[in-house]
Write a structure and sequence with these properties.
The complex is a heterodimer. Helices cover about 0% and strands about 55% of the residues of chain A. Chain A is mostly beta strands. By secondary structure, chain B is mainly β. Helix content of chain B is about 0%, strand content about 50%. In chain B, strands 2, 4, 5, 6, 9, 10 and 11 form a seven-stranded mixed sheet that branches. Chain B has a four-stranded antiparallel sheet with strand order 1-3-8-7, with no helix packed on it. The chains are: A mainly beta, B mainly beta.
Chain lengths: ~110, ~110
């Protein structure tokens, strides 16, 4: 079955610098890749998603890139701010399946 | 507010007991997902329903069961509770597979 690996488990960056979180998936049939942000004590919320027919998607300071050949996708956050501190989860799924397969999460720490 | 309602918010119970967690999805959402999140851990997928039918099962213990009712609300039943079942239980809903999932605020279960 599908497996999603997420790295790193913890990422500490200086405020204003960029952060990159990477996920790899195993099933080449996967075609939907969302990223969720979970702030401390709160619910996960979708921040960006990408489908397999697109290589990159941007939303202000956040971007996601997808490399179908290598079976990995990455979250890029530029000009990091204190409010970016959270745990970020990636996931992958296939249209014919009903289950999102989640990465283990990355704790992003923004240092002032 | 995501539109997904979970009750109760907090639950404290003794080992060996049985509890029921309730979830009302967003209006129009046919998919309901249940997740378990232990302290500082990732999201463990338990089970998913689509329009009343079970569609996917994750690492759900035999002591746990769930159902989705005709009005689309869902209940997660946890029985013979153990200390290790203490966790945050999230419900999420989406219109269909591979679309944004909206999470409820979670039910924090503490087994003492």
């Amino acid at each position: 079955g599908e497996n999603v690996e997420q790295h790193p488990s913890t990422l500490s960056v200086q405020e204003g610098d960029s952060a990159v979180i990477k996920c790899t998936y195993s099933d080449s049939a996967s075609n939907y890749f969302p990223w969720y942000k979970q702030e401390l004590g709160k619910r996960p919320q979708l921040i960006i998603d990408i489908r397999s027919n697109v290589g990159e998607k941007k939303d202000q300071r956040i971007a996601v890139t997808l490399n179908k050949t290598a079976k990995h996708f990455s979250l890029h956050i530029t000009e990091t701010q204190p409010e970016d501190s959270a745990v970020y989860f990636c996931a992958a799924s296939i249209d014919s399946n009903y289950q999102l397969i989640w990465g283990a999460g990355t704790k992003l720490i923004i240092k002032p | 507010d995501s539109g997904v309602t979970q009750t109760p918010k907090h639950l404290i119970t003794a080992t060996g007991q049985r509890v029921t967690l309730r979830c009302s999805p967003r209006s129009g959402d046919l998919s309901v997902y249940w997740y378990q999140q232990s302290l500082d851990q990732g999201l463990q997928f338990l089970i998913q329903y689509y329009n009343g039918e079970e569609r996917a099962k994750g690492n759900i213990l035999e002591r746990f069961s769930a159902q989705q009712f005709p009005d689309l609300h869902s209940e997660l039943n946890l029985s013979s509770l153990e200390l290790g079942d203490s966790a945050l239980y999230f419900c999420a809903s989406s219109v269909k597979v591979n679309t944004e999932a909206f999470f409820g605020q979670g039910t924090r279960l503490t087994v003492v």
